[in-house]
Amino acid sequence: MVNRRKALITGLLLLIGYAVVQLMLSMGLIDPFYENMLMNIGINIMLAVSLHLIIGVTGQFSIGHAGFLAVGAYVSAVLTTKLDQPFLPAILAAGVAAALFGILVGVPTLRLRGDYLAIATLGFGEIVRITLYNIDYVGGAAGMQVRHLTNWTYLYIAVIVMIIVIANLTNSAHGRALLAIREDEVAAEAMGVNTTYYKVLAFAVGAFFAGIAGAMYAHQFYVIQPVAFGFLKSFEILVIVVLGGIGSLSGAILAATLLSLVNIYLQAFPETRMILYSLVLILVMLYRPQGLMGNREITDLLKRRLGKEA
Amino acid sequence: MRVLETRGLGIRFGGLRAVQELDLFLDQGELVALIGPNGAGKTTVFNMLTGVYKPTEGEIRFFGERIDGMSPYALTRKGIARTFQNIRLFQQLSVLDNVRIAHQVNTHHTFIDSILRLPRFGREERRMLEESRALLETMGLLAVADEAARNLSYGQQRRLEIARALATHPKLLLLDEPAAGMNPRETHELMEMIERVRKTFGMTILLIEHDMSLVMNISERIYVLDHGVLIAHGGPEDVRKNPRVIEAYLGEAAEDALA
Amino acid sequence: MDWLQQLLNGISLGSIYALIALGYTMVYGIVKLINFAHGDVFMLGAFIGFYGLTALHLGFIPSILLAMAITSIIGVLIERVAYRRLRNSPRIAALTTAIGVSLFIEYTTIYIRGPQPEAYPDLFGNDKLHILGATIRADALIILLISIVLMLLLQWIVHYTKIGKAMRAVSYDAEAARLMGISVDRTISWTFALGSALAGAAGVIFGLYYTKIEPLMGLIPGLKAFIAAVLGGIGSIPGAMIGGLVLGLVETWVSALGFSLVRDAVAFVILILILLFMPQGLFGKNVREKV
Fold first, then answer.
1. What is the Cα–Cα distance from C208 to C64, expressed in whole angstroms?
2. Residue C34: left if φ>0, alpha if ψ -120 to 50, beta else—which one?
3. Nearest partner of C15 among C155, C264, C206, judged by Cα
4. What fold is seen in the domain A34-230?
5. Which segments of chain B belong to CATH 3.40.50.300?
6. Residue C286 forms contact with B (CB below 8 Å)
7. pLDDT tens digits for A222-277?
8. Separation between Cα atoms, residue A83 and residue A144, nearest integer Å
9. A305 to chain C nearest CA, in Å?
């Protein structure tokens, strides 16, 4: 019963959080600059947490995440602008299309480990970008104009659903199978874990949410171009996950929020931003490889604090 | 009842015949040892029995069914579990999770059940938790259930490896040098524990061991492997007296003396 | 008769890939790390060569030597500062750091001199040679010549000098090499120095041949050279040379057939196919994980 009450309280808090922001938005208390910032944070959280499932939980070093983002962005944009479909089915289609790509990448790259997998996923991301560049239907290098359809409600629901799905998946027998693969693939297989199935599952679910993030992204920033989905985008997402702490979901959320804010203030200085990013990455790896949170969660820390007080 | 049987089993790595023409069998409830000097091919045999390597010659039968070439996870699900010579625990995960991962071989909820937290999810997870705790209690690890596996002492890690293998509900347990790196007292305790496990679970066990003297007391039959070839097979006393075995081990002792 | 020129184009591109790939393969052979920043060392080589030729008014050969000298120092520094501490960390940590170093070099270069491209001075004019009825660019032959000389030099270093023997020993078994009194740290530094010098030379050659250089030019050739190294069998020096040539020829062939837009994707398709069907590459050893 404790669990049900906890879930109820959490649900209530989430609803209040949503309502407060929505109210402020409709009353015009949040100006467009901050609204944009909010959307940015939400999209980055989606990208980071979906990559967290692949890298942090399953231990598959994928650095082509922008490829999934691109698939989602383009599929949804084509559906809404070219085929005049409503936004909701376009969002779902973006997720499904990206998930299919996730399976497509997952299956051939399963046998690869560590750095080989990294290069192959990077290659996948580049192939997606180059392909989009060459398709005139979606505007080639110039990209596509997209209507502004993303709003707080869609994004909020998407983020919350994603966090619940990934958290629930992680805290279950299936999530433990993913963790086992991260820890030791040979041993996991020896314990009866079908590593092929689980790796594809991780890629599919991760890509699904990256695709949804793509739909949100496309319909937030008016225009999408292949150049926005290159290696640098994948790298940005990777930095968030590494900074948050590989294996920590709340770390990914925290780092996504933090870096989105930093980003906005550094937007005017793109070079400085990248130098800073790379320095942060190197320094974190050298001096705090576990990132902000290690593989712990915020809830673990709260529990410990409460335990001490009691 | 015949649990495991191999006929003409062999494997080549390039030009090297690491194991050849191996015939061995295990009957229900037996504890059999596979011994031999370093580099004899013992672990290679294990790797073939558990699907890590695909044999290039011969066949393996498990309860009469051909299993050579199946993948490791499928074999675990069929009832063959193993431990590793160089401990391969899930280091960062808790002791409990190590065992629970092995338990999930027997779960039936899908990932959709997990995501939506359907009733079946709760039922299965509760069952898994209870069984895992019971197993940890049997193996004397319940007190450290929430510790990360890497924080365990060496002896505890070895025990956890066995607990984890048992959690898959095996019909056949393969132990790869479970006493490696243990002092005589720990070894003695371990051997007692293996006996206990065998009695409690009615398990059939194949045990790899480097040190011949260790297995003399507990195994019913012993296979001796040298340079990938079976050089002796029989009861402990027969094997102990076998001149080829003595030669194989003497050769190694001489090498050790030179080294 | 334009096939000979195409062939030579392919070989020129291939030898540039091969020179970069050598650095990847040597470093990977010894420290098992994909030195992501290697492509950027190549870029730095191109710029150093450029400033040598233009600002310092050096000749062609001195510029190449200058580029090689400075990039080898940079290579050693990168290893010292960023990679050495991570030698025993998880591979993910090392690879992430390497990506960080790569971006750091790129954007520091942009920060210092801006993102605009430079045009390499034209040293050999439009000299054309007529062979067998085909017209070929003179600079293509020079590239080929320099690449061959550098690769022979490398072969000699690896096989006949003390440092080369130490490199082979460390890549075979670092622990055993240490016990034999070989300084592993120094050997690794040398490996980075040699690999980076080759990348630096490749940078100058690239500038000469393709004329346009810019701060982000290292990324794609770097990745492709890595693919060439994988194709040849990572860790194998002849493999890297052959892999580079094969990749250069295939790419030239694909663009000659009119698919120039997908040229960049071809390499990645090759990579995925190789990793799936021939993970040891053309000349690599089949390494299986110990269980």
1. 11
2. beta
3. C206
4. ABC transporter involved in vitamin B12 uptake, BtuC (1.10.3470)
5. 1-79+172-259, 88-169
6. yes
7. 899 998 998 889 988 998 998 888 889 999 999 999 988 888 888 778 788 888 88
8. 13
9. 30
Distance from CA of B48 to the nearest CA of C (A): 11
Nearest to C291 among B13, B14, B47 (CB): B47
Chain C residues within 8 A of A114 when measuring between CB atoms: 91-92, 95
C226 close to A (CB below 8 A): yes
Helix (H) or strand (E) holding C269: helix C263-277
CATH architecture of residue range(s) B1-79+172-259: 3-Layer(aba) Sandwich (3.40)
Please tell me the distance in Å from B60's CA to the nearest CA on chain C: 20
Instruction: Return the domain boundaries, chain C.
Output: 3-217
CA–CA–CA angle C177, C178, C179 (5° rounding): 90
Burial of B119 (0-12, 13-18, 19+ CB in 10 A): exposed
User: What digits encode the pLDDT tens for the residues A40-56?
Assistant: 999 999 999 999 999 99
- Please report how many Cα atoms fall inside a 13 Å half-sphere around the Cα of residue B170, on the Cβ side: 33
Q: Which residues pair with B221 in a beta bridge?
A: B32
* Chain A neighbors of C94, CB-CB under 8 A: 285
Over residues A59-71, mean pLDDT = 93
Does C279 lie at the interface with A, CB-CB under 8 angstroms? yes
ipTM of the complex as predicted: 0.88
With contact defined as beta carbons under 8 Å apart, do B168 and B81 qualify? yes
What six digits make up the tokens of C243?
């892999």
Please provide the CATH number assigned to the domain covering B88-169: 3.40.50.300
- Indicate the length of chain C as a whole number: 291
Average pLDDT, chain B: 87
